[in-house]
Amino acid sequence: MSVEATQLVDDVMRRWPATIRVFLKYRMRCVGCPIGCFHTIDDACREHATDRAQFLADLRDAVGGKPISAAGPTR
């Protein structure tokens, strides 16, 4: 599963912690924001006037196709 515009911001950052750097790079202060559990990636891009396609591409690059499991990272 990759990052999609319909996913909630908070869910994305929890599942793929490496995406936090991307939010900060775009000056999106979504980390710890109480709205993050309600806003989708699409909502956040619209609210922050950010190019959605480029933002999603950067999120997907950060993810590298490797989600963190519910039990945490494995070695």
Task: Please tell me what the overall shape is.
Answer: globular
Number of domains: 1
Helices and strands: which structural class? mainly alpha
Contiguous helical run count: 4
> Major beta sheet, specifics?
none
- Would you count the extended β strands for me? 0
Low-confidence stretches: 67-75
Q: What average pLDDT do the residues reach? A: 87
As a whole number of angstroms, the C-alpha radius of gyration is: 12 Å
Helix content: 40-55%
Order of helices and strands: HHHH
Strand content: under 5%
Q: N- to C-terminal separation? A: 20 Å
Pfam families: DUF1858 (PF08984)
Protein name: DUF1858 domain-containing protein
Domain DUF1858: 7-53
Structure, explained:
Helices cover 43% and strands 0% of the residues. By secondary structure, the protein is mainly alpha-helical. It is globular, with a radius of gyration of 12 Å. Residues 67-75 have low confidence and may be disordered.
List the helices and strands and how they pair.
Layout lengths: L8 H7 L4 H6 L15 H7 L4 H12 L12
Features:
75 residues, mainly alpha, DUF1858 domain-containing protein, DUF1858
